[in-house]
Amino acid sequence: MDKKTVAVIFGGESSEYEVSLKSASAVIENLDKEKYDVIKIGITREGRWLRYEGNIDNIRNNTWFLDDHCKEVMISPGKGNENLIEVENGMLTHTKIDVAFPVLHGKNGEDGTLQGLFEIAGIPYVGCNVTTSSICIDKDYTHKIVEYEGFNVPKSLAINHQTPEEEIDGFAKAVNYPVYVKPAQEGSSIGMTKAENRLQLFQGIKEALKFDEKVVLEEMIHGFEVGCAILGNDDLIVGTVDEIEIPGGFFDFTEKYTLKNSKIHLPARIDHELCERIKTAAKGIYQALGCRGLARVDLFIAEKNRIVFNEVNTLPGFTTGSRFPNMLLHAGMEYKCILDKLIELGMQR
Length: 349
Hints:
- This protein is an alpha+beta fold.
- The protein has helices spanning 17-30, 57-60, 113-121, 130-136, 139-148, 165-175, 198-208, 253-258, 272-288, 323-330, 335-346, and strands at 4-11, 36-43, 49-52, 71-75, 84-88, 91-95, 99-102, 156-159, 179-183, 193-195, 215-219, 224-232, 237-238, 242-245, 263-265, 293-301, 307-313.
- A seven-stranded mixed sheet has the order 6-5-4-3-2-1-7. Strands 12, 13, 14, 15, 16 and 17 form a six-stranded antiparallel sheet that branches.
- Strand 5 (84-88) and strand 6 (91-95) form a beta hairpin.
- The longest helix is centred in the last third of the chain and has 17 residues, at 272-288.
- The chain is globular, with a radius of gyration of 21 Å.
- Pfam families: Dala_Dala_lig_C, Dala_Dala_lig_N.
C-alpha cells in the first residue's frame, strides 16, 4: 500500500494557539507511520508558515519555531501535483500533499479561511468545508440557522459597539439575569463572562469587544450541558454522550483545560430514552449546518428534559484526553482509527 502524505497544520494567529499545539501533538504522535508520511507545518503567532522536522515535545512546549532547520513554506494556490513550496536560500522545493489535516482552533483556522485556501489549491482536507466552518464559528449565525431548522435555542441578542444601551437593557429585562456575554467568533470560552447585574453586563460587553466586533448576549439555560461527538459525511458515527458537571460559575477557559472544579461524566448520567433524543438532535443539527468529517455538538438539558442547542465545534480539542476522541473511544473507536477515518473522509472530496 502506498503511503499518503499528510500535512498536519498547527499553531496559528488564534487566541487558541496553545490549544492547537496540544491537539496537533497528539495527532502527529498517533498517526500510523506505516500508512502516512507526515509533514509538520507550524504557523507562528505572527502568521509565518514553517515546515518543522523536529520532535513533538518542542511543539508541546512551544519552542518548535526556534529550530534552526525550520523552512519557510507556502501552499501553492495553483491546482496541480505539487502543492507545498519550501523556500530555502532562494531555492524552491515542491512537495505533493495528498491530504491536509488542519489542527487549528478558532479564527484563521477553524473559520473557513484555511479551508478556502485548500479549496483553491485543490488539496483534500480533513473537516468541514468553507461555508460550514465560517457559519459555525459565529454563534449568532449558527443559532439563527439551528432555530430556523426547528431546534430549541437560547434567547439571544447580537450587538456591536453601536448598539443602544436601551436595547441591551431591554434584552436583559426580558430574559432576567444572569446573562452570558460572548464574543461571536471566539472558542474555548475566551472573552466570555457571566453577568449577574447591569454593571457586570456592560463590563462583560467591553471585554468581549476586545476579541470580536460582534458580541452575543444569551439567556442562561437552567439545567446541565451534554456533548455529542459526531464523525462522518453522510453515514454518521456518534460517540457516547458526555455530561459536564459544574459546581459553580460556568465552563470557562480555565475549567475546560484544568477541570479544577468541574467534572466530565462519560457516559452522561441520563436514561437511554433521553440519550437517544440527544443523539438524534445532535445529528439533525450536524446535518442542518452541513457539517462534514467531524464536529462536537454541545447541548443543554433544561427543565422537563427539554433539549436546547448551545454550539457546534467543527474542530474540537483533539488531545488523547479531550472530550471528542474520548466520546468515540467509549463507543468503541480507538484514537488511531478516528484519525484514519478522518483522513479517509477528507480524501473523499
